[in-house]
């Protein structure tokens, strides 16, 4: 009986969750159909999804999605290859850290999009521009997280390693690096969304091929239903990537105090 | 001189010296390179002084910052309000959950064409887009902060009959404030990014417009001066928020430090 | 004045039910100092939270002056064990104490007087504008006591208030509580796991059993007033009483498997 009760309550929660989404969708549909919102700007939800399913059958849609993801993966990958070793290098030496701290603090807050004109100038409107911007933006969160991770090592753990006469290299590989992994995971999650933002920005502003450019084209062409459909697609991509990294983060973080009792 | 002192002096010298060395390196290289893309640093600085001190402040910098402030302000107020409601009510959290998850997952620039379609290319569109994008970090952090209020504090409030708005003002919000600030920090960076992009895509004034226009007309030194200005603004805005946070959350840091003592 | 009547509290449902309190009854008279003592994990805190109206009982009731407690009554002040978490770190000592007074319709002068008197009676006059985190643990608990006193409660519920301070501070705070109880003429229910503390402070001691918890024994403490940390504890009656309570708890424990 208790089991049945629990299930019923679980069902109640599930129903609440989807009731919210359903209500918003129905209200939006009605507002558009009745003309409460101008149909030119707010097409009915059903039409958005019709456009979305139509797009799913078009090769250009899959090409654009692939191009956006290509910019994202290259941007994040290159940023990780640069930022993680740099963070490790700076995080393992007080001298190196202090030498570059001010430089980092100055470069980090520069809005990456300020470099859009430079990217156009040097790389043109293609993939390189997109990747350059994504790398620049994704580099900083990863660098900072790696640095924190290297510095936030439990001193007792280091002393323990010392007491057991581990060498400096062993201390770094056995104690410091494992401790930094959760931080790097968090950095990857943040940088992943930043890289996606910059990929779409480049497509939108510079006109690099990808979903961002298609969204803008839909706007210029007055295809409001397609515009909304493509925004929904980018949202789903962002949500999917974020969930993927969040799940990975939970896995590598399972031993960390912040996760205990947090389920 | 003892070694500890010598080390301290070395560190300070490095901390000041390396940035200067980087600047000097850029200076020497850019003067010598005579590259089209990378004009000499002194040229950039002269152009910076000519352009931004203070000729274009009124026409470009002020409108940009005003839109940024408006969008950011709306986002903070709305984010705290909605975040508080969601934080206090599990039902509201479940109902709004998927919508919030989706809303924050949309890459911010993708909202620009939507804003332009519905609101045109004026200030309203830019403020709207900045506000929508900045909303999510503040909202989500507020939810976490409100949910994380210490149960003993809430019990204290109940025992002493502190309820309603009083409970929000005196207990829930102060307690959630560190998290709210964390959200605001993220939002501020996003606000700056959206300010620039919105001006690049749809504007005839503003810093973003100026930078892109300079590039299109091959005024490379002007373009660089704009990039430098955006860097300086980013730095100053972050520093200002950090300063505010330090003052407002003095109790938070002190309480943390005393808990670790 | 306060009546606990067949109080039961059950957590969870179905197979994972735990009975924390089972048919627990006792009374507290006007102006009395009652200590509740029991083995650790016996639901002392649950009991006190039910008495304060923070937790609804599964069955039975708590009544205060004949009225059944459904939510926190206005006549109750509460001192939590976790002083560092019940004081607001963003408020000064003064504002922490004044916080509950804001909605009592008092004049500004009256409010200031209540706060300052309470601070003085716990011996923190010089620290009124400090923040909680600038004070030691013992001093923070004094602030929590002052907050409860300034609220002018008729009954003060204290949940293991001195469990996390050192021994010397603890003795000072015990004497402080005895003194302010006289000054303010307040009824006190004091929960503790420390048998010495219970016997030293109480007019009566309520001994609880292991869960499902009920009242094992209620013991009158007829030690001479005023109590004194050295002299009272040297009395043969004191030793006798604490041995009695100790055996009562111990005997009951031996009847059930060790936890």
TrEMBL record, chain A:
The species this protein was found in: Prauserella muralis
Single biological process term from Gene Ontology: transmembrane transport
Superkingdom assignment: Bacteria
Gene3D superfamilies listed in its UniProt record: MetI-like
Transmembrane segments: 44-63, 69-94, 106-125, 131-148, 226-248
Intracellular or extracellular location(s): Cell membrane
One Pfam assignment: BPD_transp_1
Signal sequence coordinates: none
Record bears the keyword Membrane: yes
Keyword Disulfide bond assigned: no
Similarity field: Belongs to the binding-protein-dependent transport system permease family.
Keywords: Cell membrane, Membrane, Transmembrane, Transmembrane helix, Transport
Membrane topology listed for this record: Multi-pass membrane protein
Protein's UniProt name: ABC transporter permease
Gene Ontology, cellular component aspect: plasma membrane
TrEMBL record, chain B:
Signal peptide, first to last residue: none
Pfam families (alphabetical): BPD_transp_1
Membrane topology: Multi-pass membrane protein
GO terms, biological process: cellular response to sulfur starvation; transmembrane transport
Keyword tags: Cell membrane, Membrane, Transmembrane, Transmembrane helix, Transport
Compartments in which it is found: Cell membrane
One annotated Gene Ontology cellular component of this protein: plasma membrane
InterPro entries in UniProt: MetI-like, MetI-like_sf
Transmembrane segments: 9-29, 65-91, 111-139, 188-211, 223-244
Membership in a protein family: Belongs to the binding-protein-dependent transport system permease family.
Name of the molecule in the record: Nitrate ABC transporter permease
Automatic annotation (TrEMBL), chain C:
Record-linked SMART domains: AAA
Highest classification ranks of the organism: Bacteria, Bacillati, Actinomycetota, Actinomycetes, Pseudonocardiales
Pfam families reported in the protein's UniProt record: ABC_tran
Protein name: ABC transporter
InterPro entries hit by this protein: AAA+_ATPase, ABC_transporter-like_ATP-bd, ABC_transporter-like_CS, ABC_transporter_ATP-bind, P-loop_NTPase
Originating species: Prauserella muralis
Transmembrane region(s): none
UniProt-recorded Gene Ontology molecular function terms: ATP binding; ATP hydrolysis activity
The organism's place on the tree of life at top rank: Bacteria
Keywords of this entry: ATP-binding, Nucleotide-binding, Transport
Keyword Ribosomal protein: no
Statement: the UniProt record of this protein carries the keyword Transport: yes
């Amino acid at each position: 009986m208790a089991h049945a009760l629990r299930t019923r309550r679980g069902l109640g929660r599930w129903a609440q969750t989807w009731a919210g989404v359903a209500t918003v969708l129905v209200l939006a549909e009605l507002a558009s159909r009745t003309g409460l919102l101008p149909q030119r700007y707010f097409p009915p939800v059903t039409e958005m999804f019709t456009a979305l399913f139509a797009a799913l059958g078009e090769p250009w849609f899959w090409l654009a999605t692939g191009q956006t993801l290509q910019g994202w993966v290259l941007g994040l990958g290159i940023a990780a290859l640069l930022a993680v070793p740099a963070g490790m290098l700076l995080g393992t030496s007080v001298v190196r850290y202090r030498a570059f701290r001010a430089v980092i603090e100055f470069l980090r807050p520069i809005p990456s999009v300020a470099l859009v004109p430079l990217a156009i100038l040097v790389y043109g409107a293609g993939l390189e521009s997109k990747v350059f911007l994504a790398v620049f933006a994704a580099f900083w969160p990863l660098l900072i997280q790696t640095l924190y991770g290297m510095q936030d090592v439990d001193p007792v753990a280091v002393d323990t390693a010392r007491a057991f006469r581990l060498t400096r290299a062993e201390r770094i590989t056995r104690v410091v690096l494992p401790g930094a992994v959760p931080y790097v995971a968090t950095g990857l999650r943040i940088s992943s969304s930043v890289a996606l933002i910059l990929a779409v920005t480049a497509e939108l502003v510079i006109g690099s091929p990808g979903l961002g450019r298609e969204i803008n084209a839909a706007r210029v062409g007055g295809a409001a239903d397609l515009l909304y459909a493509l925004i929904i697609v980018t949202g789903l991509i962002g949500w999917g990537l974020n969930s993927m990294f969040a799940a990975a983060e939970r896995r590598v973080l399972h031993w960390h105090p912040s996760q205990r009792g947090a389920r | 001189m003892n070694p500890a002192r010598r080390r301290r002096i070395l560190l300070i010298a490095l901390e000041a010296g390396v940035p200067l060395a980087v600047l000097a390196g850029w200076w020497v290289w850019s003067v010598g390179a005579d590259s089209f893309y990378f004009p000499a640093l002194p040229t950039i600085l002269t152009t910076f002084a000519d352009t931004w001190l203070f000729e274009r402040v009124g026409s470009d910098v002020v409108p940009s910052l005003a839109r940024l402030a408006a969008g950011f302000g709306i986002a903070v107020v709305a984010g705290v309000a909605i975040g508080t409601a969601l934080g206090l009510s599990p039902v509201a959290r479940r109902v709004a959950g998927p919508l919030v998850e989706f809303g924050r997952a949309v890459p911010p620039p993708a909202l620009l064409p939507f804003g332009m379609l519905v609101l045109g290319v004026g200030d309203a569109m830019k403020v709207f887009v900045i506000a929508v994008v900045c909303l999510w970090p503040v909202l989500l952090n507020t939810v976490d902060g409100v949910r994380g209020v210490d149960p003993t504090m809430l019990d204290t409030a109940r025992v002493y009959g502190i309820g309603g708005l009083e409970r929000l003002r005196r207990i829930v919000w102060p307690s959630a404030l560190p998290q709210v600030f964390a959200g605001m920090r993220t939002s501020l960076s996003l606000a700056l990014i959206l300010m620039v992009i919105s001006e690049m895509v749809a504007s005839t004034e503003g810093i973003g417009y100026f930078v892109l226009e300079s590039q299109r007309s091959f005024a490379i030194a002007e373009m660089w001066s704009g990039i430098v200005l955006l860097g300086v603004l980013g730095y100053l805005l972050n520093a200002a928020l950090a300063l505010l946070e330090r003052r407002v959350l003095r109790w938070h840091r002190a309480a943390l430090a005393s808990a670790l003592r | 004045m306060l009546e606990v009547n067949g109080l039961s509290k059950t957590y969870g449902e179905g197979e994972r039910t735990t009975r924390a309190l089972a048919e627990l009854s006792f009374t507290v008279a006007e102006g009395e100092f009652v200590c509740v003592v029991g083995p650790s994990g016996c639901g002392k805190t649950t009991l006190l939270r039910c008495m304060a109206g923070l937790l609804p009982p599964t069955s039975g009731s708590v009544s205060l002056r004949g009225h059944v407690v459904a939510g926190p009554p206005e006549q109750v002040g509460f001192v939590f064990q976790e002083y560092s978490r019940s004081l607001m770190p963003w408020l000064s000592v003064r504002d922490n104490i004044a916080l509950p007074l804001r909605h009592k319709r008092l004049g500004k002068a009256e409010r200031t007087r209540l706060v300052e008197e309470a601070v003085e009676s716990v011996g923190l006059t010089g620290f009124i504008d400090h923040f909680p985190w600038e004070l030691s643990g013992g001093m923070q608990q004094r602030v929590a006591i002052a907050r409860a006193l300034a609220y002018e409660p008729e009954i003060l519920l204290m949940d293991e208030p001195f469990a996390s301070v050192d021994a010397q501070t603890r003795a000072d705070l015990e004497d402080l509580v005895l003194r302010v109880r006289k000054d303010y003429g307040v009824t006190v229910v004091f929960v503790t796991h420390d048998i010495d503390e219970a016997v030293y402070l109480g007019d009566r001691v309520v001994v609880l059993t292991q869960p499902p918890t009920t009242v094992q024994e209620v013991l009158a403490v007829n030690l001479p007033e005023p109590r004194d940390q050295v002299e009272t504890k040297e009395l043969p009656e004191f030793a006798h009483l604490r041995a009695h309570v100790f055996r009562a708890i111990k005997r009951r424990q031996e009847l059930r498997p060790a936890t």
